[in-house]
Input
Amino acid sequence: MSTAQQPDPRDRPARLAVGVVGAGRVGPALAASLQLAGHRPVAVSGVSDASRRRAALLLPDVPLLPPAEVLRRADLVLLTVPDDSLPGLVEGLAETGAVRPGQLLVHTSGRYGAKVLDPALRAGALPLALHPAMTFTGTPVDVQRLAGCAFGVTAPDELRLAAEALVIEMGGEPEWIAEESRPLYHAALALGANHLVTLVAQSMELLRAAGVEAPDRMLGPLLGAALDNALRSGDGALTGPVARGDAGTVAAHVAQLREHAPQAVAGYLAMARATADRALAHGLLKPELAEDLLGVLAEEAHGTPGAPGTPGTHGTEGDAG
Output
């Protein structure tokens, strides 16, 4: 059940004409969710064939138009372009006079807060930063996933209620992020979500190389449990050879990776060192075992592996790691 405070009806935005500038994976899904809340998508811009297909799938019968025309038709404009493109887009729209006074201008970048919209603010726009903490596919399933999705919200104080109301109308949970904290907030999400995809994809490749026919079925229950445990217990959920201090097992892992997947060695060593540091700091890794383990990691990182002990001699407490 949502714990977000429901806005007073007087603070809810009126039914708005919605425009999307940048028909990537995010914009059409947000516009479609706003349509379910009673708002009216009126225009979308997209250049690539993939963008046009996404717009047609999620926003059928909504015309594809140039960005300036999208702004001319819309009361609420979603700027859903890549982070690095956002400042230039905002400046260009403001300089060409496309921005109207009183127009709600919303960007969905995690990196930026509301200040990136200052050129539009000077033109009279109302700036909002609403970043959905969700991964998007560009398909209708995204609209369903927005239910309960947290949004990082940054806006001027006088627009805070309107920003939070829009998030709630999309089914999301507003979480206020200070302007100066936006880069750290975004780095945290990228570290958890983006890097997770890389780790899972590498794990699946290695399992296939080991002869596992359905690595997704093997990993699904394990990763689901690991994620649930981590969210519940934080570092207390650490398991596996690094947390146990099994230096020989870790050395054997690295040897196998060097032979079969050398591109994965650097990532394994970096994550193993980070895991060891956290396990040691939280009392999970015994100091007398940490010394050998950290020595192995240091040697492997410098490409001078030592002679590991017998793999797994420090115990196998029955965890899957």
Summary: The beta strands are 17-21, 40-45, 76-79, 104-107, 126-132, 150-154, 173-176. Confidence is low (pLDDT under 50) at residues 6-12, 307-319. The radius of gyration is 24 Å. The longest helix spans residues 182-209.
